[in-house]
Specification:
The complex is a heterodimer of chains A (176) and B (249). Chain A has 176 residues and is mainly α. Chain A has 3 domains: 69 residues, no CATH class; 50 residues, Orthogonal Bundle (Helix Hairpins), CATH 1.10.287; 52 residues, no CATH class. In chain A, helix 1 packs across helix 2 and helix 4 crosses helix 5. The longest helix of chain A has 24 residues. Chain B is of the alpha+beta class and 249 residues long. Chain B has a 4-stranded mixed sheet, with helices on one face. The longest helix of chain B is centred in the first third of the chain and has 26 residues. Chain B is elongated, with a radius of gyration of 22 Å. The chains are: A mainly alpha (176), B alpha+beta (249). At the A-B interface, helix 3 of A face helix 2, strand 2, strand 4, strand 5 and helix 5 of B.
């Protein structure tokens, strides 16, 4: 069936004069065909309304979701943000074994502090609890990683009594 | 100017096809994320590398992830497992991960012959079983290689949670939609690294951009013995482990 027949059917149902008498005896078929045609149109109209715009642009998903997910604000500011103001500490740290340990590993998430330094102060952790979280001896840790049994090594003393977290290379005797 | 209906339809058809193709080509080349963003999806393909020999099981990654992504208590987008293997019994390792390893690990009473930590997270598979199982297109692989969840579109059926062979997904207890590691998509699109990689004190975890020729990941993959988790499942996992033990499941 070509387009011309479709057209003639619609014109016939609309009572157009040129089609008068053309489908006599087959009106029921014409009606069926037109109902089917309207159903298809309705399907595409509903699809247009119900499927989010641009769905499928990059794959079988809603492309706007990418920007929505990406728009969330970071909680951890990143070490670059810390270096903007605290370059003295970053320099001190860069010469020691903790050079690659990020500020926020010990001092906690700092994006609020980075945006407004007065609004939130980063954590000043208790070295007695902080240092063992990495350096407490464990058979599962890589053997070359520096580790101690803290109770044997320091008793009840906090690690910061002898060691400086920003320059851990210095031996306890160097402490000034 | 006269034009037959056939000519008109043919011309219109060509216009639609050609302009559509041109638009498609433009988008795949630039891959805009947002009008104000400098980030181009087409320039990145994200992955992660994990060096088993550097992981000390401190749990900083788990803590940072929970804080960065508001992960509900008792659920994990990343976690650390401690494996203990006795002798040749690779098939029966003792594995523990108290609270995801968030607060470290208790000392071992009877040490096994070998013990090590394995941190885990979504493998951001290139052929994800989770994406294939989603009936509504709410979870997807982004053009820059990150498996994400469109939480506005998710119907919470949970098929993806069953489909993930790595157990990396969970049903969010209050949002009632699937949730998982987003590879900190909100950070990496702003030029930051993920929260877990940011705080990892030993550099065991590193975010990697496979499309960046200067990224150290290329050397990492070339020089070391690399394994992914469950390679037999052919998921196209993109979390690359260095010196992964055969006992790890």
């Amino acid at each position: 069936m070509n387009y011309a027949v479709w057209g003639r059917m619609v014109l016939y149902l609309l009572g157009h004069q040129t089609m008068r008498g053309k489908f006599d005896g087959a009106e029921h078929l014409v009606r069926l065909v037109v109902v089917a045609f309207v159903a298809v149109l309705l399907f595409f109209a509903l699809r247009k309304v119900m499927v989010p715009s641009e769905f499928g642009k990059y794959g079988h998903f809603r492309p706007a979701a990418l920007a929505e997910i990406a728009s969330k604000a970071p909680v951890y500011a990143g070490r670059g943000a810390c270096a903007d103001c605290h370059d003295d500490v970053v320099k001190l740290k860069s010469e020691g074994k903790h050079a690659n340990v990020a500020c926020e590993t010990c001092h906690g998430a700092a994006s609020v502090h980075a945006a407004d330094p007065d609004k939130q102060k980063p954590l000043l952790p208790d070295t007695k609890l902080l240092c063992p979280s990495c350096h407490e001896a464990s058979t599962a840790k890589p053997s070359k990683f520096p580790q101690v049994v803290s109770s044997d090594h320091a008793g009840d003393a906090a690690c910061g009594t002898c060691h400086k977290p920003h320059e851990p290379n210095k031996s306890p005797e160097d402490k000034s | 100017m006269s034009m037959s209906r056939r000519d008109l339809l043919a011309a219109a058809g060509k216009f639609i096809i050609l302009s559509g193709a041109a638009q498609e080509a433009m988008e795949s080349a630039t891959g805009d994320l947002a009008p104000d963003s400098k980030y181009r999806m087409a320039e990145h393909y994200w992955a992660m590398t994990i060096d088993i020999n550097k992981c000390i099981g401190c749990g900083n990654c788990v803590k940072a992830c929970a804080q960065e992504n508001e992960v509900p208590k008792g659920f994990f987008r990343t976690w650390v497992e401690r494996y203990e293997v006795s002798g040749d019994d690779l098939e029966h390792p003792r594995v523990d991960s108290p609270n995801g390893g968030m607060n470290g690990f208790p000392s071992i009473d009877k040490p096994a012959d070998k013990a090590f930590f394995v941190s885990k997270l979504c493998n951001h598979c290139a052929h994800s079983p989770c994406v294939q199982s989603c009936p509504v297109g709410a979870t997807f692989e982004s053009p820059d290689g990150v498996v994400l969840v469109d939480q506005k579109y998710c119907v919470g059926c949970g098929y993806c949670i069953q489909a993930c062979p790595y157990g990396c997904r969970y049903m969010h207890p209050t949002k009632h939609v699937a949730d998982k590691c987003s590879l900190c998509y909100h950070r990496i699109t702003k030029g930051l690294t993920t929260a877990c990689c940011e705080v990892c004190p030993t550099g065991s975890r590193r975010l990697a951009d496979l499309k960046d020729p200067k990224d150290p990941v290329h050397d990492f993959l070339r020089v070391n013995k690399i394994q992914v988790l469950k390679p037999e499942m052919a998921t196209g996992a993109k979390v690359f482990y260095k010196d992964l033990d055969g006992s790890v499941r």
